[in-house]
Amino acid sequence: MGQLGTLALAAARTWVTTPPHPLFWTGLRLLAAHGGQADVPALVAGLDWLDSRPNDLCGYDELVKGLARIGGPRATEELPRLRRLWFSPHSYERAGYLRARMALDPDGASGCLSEGLWDCESAVRLLAARQVTLERSIP
Hints:
- By secondary structure, this protein is mainly alpha-helical.
- The protein is 58% helix and 0% strand.
- It has one domain.
- α8 packs across α9.
């Protein structure tokens, strides 16, 4: 998938128009990695598609990283979903959610950053440790 890059964006936009397409998921991943503002609705539809698959809830992190990379008002509208995803059973995806929260809502991510200091995932702990300002009060 990484080798396809921007050369496959036009095809990816076609693949994501029909969920049964065999390259649907690949298309979403390509849009997340290389797409632009016009691809945000497709990424949001991809999140909805994942929501509709209760037995297959992996991959949100790739799509939200794309939304965070692209940014804009429509991507920011997905912040409630990002807050919900923080409690996902897929803890290994939390670093992606946290990066997206930091990009889309830097002020609102502070609580997750503090919580991330004690996360079970080392990538989350490292990200939080690099971002959280530690204060020490001197009596």
